[in-house]
Amino acid sequence: MDDTRIRDRAYELWESEGRPDGRHEEHWHQARRELDGEGASSAADSAADSAPGPDAGIPVPGNASQDSLHEAAERFRDMDREQRKADAGTASTP
User: What is the per-residue pLDDT for 16?
Assistant: First the structure.
């Protein structure tokens, strides 16, 4: 499974729920389950696509899962910061 697709879906879930704090792991796992359900045509495909989630405790090269999770969190913060600036700009305009 592609971490980029999981991250993008987790972001969509986060936004659709009003951007709550502290639910990144729940969104990650939900996105993973949803994407797992849409694709694997056989047990072999499913096993091959089984990438560890953010808290699987399985070492991966360069700690890729954790890096992806941190990258997603930074992306969420940046987008939230940009949205707040945009909201502040429109709120002060008569």
Answer: 92
- pLDDT digits 0-9 by tens, 12-24: 999 999 988 898 8
Cβ atoms of 69 and 54 within 8 Å: the answer is yes
57-81 pLDDT, tens digit per residue, is 555 555 556 677 778 888 888 888 8
CA-based nearest residue to 56, from 69, 46, 40, 44: 69
Find all residues with CB under 8 Å of 28, minimum gap 6, and list them: 6, 7, 10, 53, 54, 69, 72
Domain residue ranges of the chain, discontinuous segments joined by +: 3-91
Dist. CA 50–CA 61, nearest whole Å: 15
- Which pairs count as long-range contacts for 86-94, CB under 8 Å and 24+ apart, including other chains? none
Question: 78 by DSSP, 3-state: which?
Answer: helix
